Amino acid sequence: MCQDEKDPPLSYEEKLGDIEQFRKRMAPILDKYPSYDTLFTLDRWLRSYDNDIEEAAKRMTQALENLYALDACREYDSAEWLNDFLHSISRAAEYFPGGIMGPDKHGNIILVQPMGRARPRTLMRLGRVSDLYKASILETEACMYFLRKEEAVRGHQLSIIFILDLAELSLESIYMPAVKAYINVLNVLQYLFPNSIKKVYVINSPSMINVLFNMVKRVLSKV
């Protein structure tokens, strides 16, 4: 039986040609949101939808309109400013340490979440689930804002490096309503920010991590 041959990878010139076509297709939206009109941003969206310009255009348009509706399309002065802002919109933020650490030596943006120290039952009582969605989206958009600035300086595509610290995690920390909400947040973030995470590091992992990983692996995109 003959196997189907895979299409050869696009050449650099072909990629640039597709990106320019995509840019023209997205021109009305990019005029409205000019900070997203970068070679590397457009490339991320195109790759996410196998260079299908129409599908990528539809999805990116929806994502940017959603970000605008959440007032996420803004300039972010610094990670410290973002943390202060998140505290102002969500009481739970002060009980959820971590966040954007800044760029590594290569320019990739490091995002740390000490999930093991979170107390989900308490956090769920401190606000609405919609607050969690908004805070997560704003934090990730801030990561992308800093990422675009680094890419403009360095001249090549960069990514987010996500560090998940599970120190102090126990079975008592696994509160299913919070787990379901977190999985839904991951789905939303992958829809709004495709092809953004380069690596995920899990540190201080207890033996029970396989239980949690099986819960979330279905929503983790292959990079």
From TrEMBL:
<dbReference type="InterPro" id="IPR051064">
    <property type="entry name" value="SEC14/CRAL-TRIO_domain"/>
</dbReference>
<dbReference type="InterPro" id="IPR036865">
    <property type="entry name" value="CRAL-TRIO_dom_sf"/>
</dbReference>
<feature type="domain" description="CRAL-TRIO">
    <location>
        <begin position="88"/>
        <end position="223"/>
    </location>
</feature>
<protein>
    <submittedName>
        <fullName>CRAL/TRIO domain-containing protein</fullName>
    </submittedName>
</protein>
<dbReference type="Pfam" id="PF00650">
    <property type="entry name" value="CRAL_TRIO"/>
</dbReference>
<dbReference type="InterPro" id="IPR001251">
    <property type="entry name" value="CRAL-TRIO_dom"/>
</dbReference>
<dbReference type="GO" id="GO:0005737">
    <property type="term" value="C:cytoplasm"/>
</dbReference>
